[in-house]
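It is worth pausing here to work through a concrete case rather than discussing structure prediction in the abstract. The textbook approach is simple: state the sequence, then state the predicted structure, then interpret. We follow exactly that order.
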Amino acid sequence: MHTSEHRIRDDYLAAILEPDPFRAREIAREAVDGGLSLAELYSEVFQPAMVEIGDRWEAGTISVAHEHLAAEVTASLISDLAQRVRRSPEGGRLAIVSCSPGERHSIGGQMLSGLLEASGWEVLYLGATLPIGDLVGLADSEVPDVVALSTTMSAHLPEVREAVPALHGLPEPPLVALGGQAYRDEQQARELGADVWAPTAAAASALLDEEVRPA
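Step two, the predicted structure:
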C-alpha cells in the first residue's frame, strides 16, 4: 500500500468510527476524483477498514449498531461509485455474484460486482443469504460463465462445501470462484472445490478477466 492510500484508509476509518458518514463519503469520492482507481479504493481502503471494524466489533470496543452503520455507509459508497465506471455489457460474459448460502455480509460481493461491470461483464448480483437450491436453480437456467461466492464468516463454509459440487454438477457447469475473509488461504478454497480463489474483490475481478475472455 502506498503512503497516500494508507492515509486515505486511515482517514476513512477515522470518519466511520467517529461516526461521520458525510465525511467518510467525502473522503472516498475525493480519492476517486484524485485518481485512485475503484480497484485500489476497494482493496486498499474499504476492505482493510471493514476488517478493522469487524475486529473491533468482535473485541467489543464498538457496538453492533456502529458496525452496521459502517457497513451501510461503505455499501452505499460501493453502489454510488460503481455507477461512475459501469459499462454496458459487452463480450457475452455473464457472472452470478452472491454471498454464499447463509452469509449476511454482502460488501465483498458488491465490490466484485462493481468491478466486473466496469470490465464489461453482465452481472446478476444476488446479495445475502440465498438458499443453495435457488442459487443452483438460477445458475442452471441462466448458464453463467462464473458463479462467485463471497464468505465472510467461517461458520458458513459448510454451505459452500455443499453448493460447489451442486454447481459443478449442472449440465453446463460454471467456473466457481470463492473468496472472502472466511478463507485462510488458497488451499482451503481449493479443498472446497474452487476453480478460482482470490484474497480480494479486485484480485478476483482481475483473475476472472483472465480466465474468461470476451467473445
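Step three, interpretation. The first helix runs from residue 3 to 17. The mean pLDDT is 92.
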